[in-house]
Amino acid sequence: MNIYTSKDMQEIDRITIEEAGIPSLVLMENAAKAVVREMVSNFEANFLKNCLIIAGKGNNGGDGIAVGRILHHLGFNPSIFVLGEFEELSKDAKIQAEKFLGYGKIFFLSAQNFWEELEIKLKNCNLVVDAILGTGTKGKVSGNYEKVILLINQSTAQKISIDIPSGLSGDSFLPLGSAVYADLTVTLGGLKLPLSSPECEEFCGKVVKVDIGLCQNAFERIKPAAETIDLECVKGFFRERDNFTHKGKLGHLLIVAGGKGKIGAAILSAKGALRAGAGLVTVATPQTLAPFVTTAIPEAMTLPLEETEDGTLSVKSFEKIVSFSENVDSLSIGPGLSTNKETSELCRKLYKEVKIPSVFDADGINAFEKFLSEIGNFAGERVLTPHPGELGRILNLSPKEVLKDRYLIVQNFCKEKGITTVLKGYKTLVGNKSGFLRINTSGGSYMAGPGMGDILTGIVGALLARKIDAFDASSAAVFWHGLAAQMAFDQKGYGILASDVADFLPVAESFIRNGF
Q1: Residue 235 per-residue DSSP state
Q2: What gap in Å lies between CA 442 and CA 418, rounded to an integer?
Q3: Residue 229 domain-assigned (yes or no)
Q4: Same domain, 334 and 191
Q5: Which 8-state DSSP code applies to residue 307?
Q6: What CATH number corresponds to the domain at position 262?
């Protein structure tokens, strides 16, 4: 699903109104009707009977007043409070207020005992409609806006926000200050930035996108700011197999992984790749450890290589790996390699020289600590799959600093280095080399366990081997990975293993393709 900024939505509104000739008042009426439908669908009738609408002075407030008028016609008796005066209302909000005043009362800010009456209503109502501020909020709210938001949040009533919880900005993935804690957010026309972010999740509650009649052509003309990774996004990346498909057509992945005490990481990556449909998988690993791979996963081939005294891959194996890579389709490197100085040097050399699409994870990324400048120097398509600690390590930031502004950090990193980056975590971020972001919607805290990243590395490598674009392959991989984990969790509960997730990949793929 596409995600838009407030500026994007303003332009979509403009095209709809000025070019398509749909009056703004019609859009407001459509919005109000859609909000009421969601209210009726999500709340019992007794909640609607005792409903409080708090409106701002702009068109978001106009939507709220229109909701009040429709509820009145349905036989309910909503109370409307406006944080401003009639003369301050936007043109369309003023028309809505005039209509409602024909048969009901609106409490404007200058009304006697405005705040006392509002507090009484908040204590006694069952449902609050937040129609105070729209997507154009800039910076932290203050004054009367902050005061009323705090009062709303203190109320035990259910809360529904129109378009966006008041206090959040339509131009930021992050909360800027006080904001309404909504139980339901009915967003109008298009998904807004904060409604897709985990940082704002607690403010938004359940998010429902409704159609209000905006011009479809306008959406096609406006490039979204970001995109969610969901079934709609990834389904097209899973290509159908014909009856003549054989393993050679499904790609050959070379996995460079494993070291003394960590051969399991290489095995998990290979299992993830095979369960993801790679035609052939070869694991390049220290020669003394190769037999363990064959025993654990006989479907994988091995490339035994020279090793260091520490039992990790030696830089002497560089030429052999490069030569082998010329006859495969993709490379996955990093799981379980260690941070041995010589092994890290091998990783950096492979990053620079290997010409096939490659995904670097774990110690394949750690190898660039203090070598950040080398990340922009490579021969073929590159994907990095760090968690916040690994990305912070190469950027000289703490994990907390990475998470504090992960969207901007990933965007800038991708653009500066010209690579695809997968920042793992809750609602994993995937950025392409232009800095465009996708936000994953699958998975959850049940994935907090060892080896999950190794499985993902194998999946990404398998999709790259099928000649899928790096950004699309990474997006499909994180959604698929998370969906398989959800399925494993549903059957087994907490304590699922990374190998369980790998085993559910074929089931998850069937669901993506067929919906069952």
Answers
A1: G
A2: 26
A3: no
A4: no
A5: B
A6: 3.40.1190.20
Taking the C-alpha atoms of residue 410 and residue 451, their distance in angstroms, rounded to an integer, is: 23
Q: What is the mean pLDDT of residues 22-48?
A: 95
Q: What is the pLDDT of residue 47?
A: 86
CATH code for the domain in which residue 122 is found:
3.40.50.10260
Average pLDDT score over residue span 166-174: 94
- pTM, two decimal places: 0.93
Per-residue pLDDT averaged across 204-232, rounded? Answer: 96
Tallying the residues shown for the chain, one arrives at 516
The β-bridge partners of 285 are 304
How far apart (Å, rounded) are the C-alpha atoms in residues 97 and 156? 27
Structure tokens at 150: 């705090």
Structural domain range at position 46: 2-224
In the chain, the largest separation of any two C-alpha atoms, in whole Å, equals: 87
Q: How far apart are the first and last CA of the chain?
A: 21
Nearest to 77 by CA among 111, 47, 55: 47
Same-domain status, 213 and 325: no
Buried b (16+ CB within 10 A) or exposed e, 202-229: ebbbebbebebebbeebbeebebbbbbb
Q: Are residues 109 and 56 in the same domain?
A: yes
| Integer Cα distance of 5 and 390 in angstroms | 30
Task: Give residue 131's pLDDT.
Answer: 98
State the Cα–Cα distance between residues 117 and 107, nearest whole angstrom: 9
| Same domain? 83 vs 52 | yes
pLDDT digits (tens, 9 = 90+) for 84-143: 999 999 999 999 999 999 988 999 999 999 999 999 999 999 999 999 999 989 889 999
Nearest CA-CA partner of 364 in 377, 380, 347, 378: 347
Cβ proximity of 450 and 498 under 8 Å: yes
As a whole number, mean pLDDT of residues 334-361 equals 98
CB 154 within 8 A of CB 92: no
CA–CA gap between residue 373 and residue 350 (Å, rounded): 15
Give per-residue pLDDT as tens, 269-306.
999 999 999 999 999 999 999 999 999 999 999 999 99
Strand intervals (E) in 73-157? 79-82, 106-108, 127-131
3-class secondary-structure state, position 148: helix
Kindly state the percentage of the chain with pLDDT values over 70.
100
Q: Say how far apart CA 378 and CA 353 lie, in whole Å.
A: 6
The Cα–Cα gap between 224 and 193 comes to 10
Q: Do 197 and 250 belong to one domain?
A: no
> Looking up tokens 């209210």, which residue turns up?
39
> Whole-angstrom Cα distance, residue 483 to residue 389?
24
Residues 6+ apart with CB under 8 A from 294: 300, 302
Q: Which of 199, 224, 249 marks a domain boundary?
A: 224
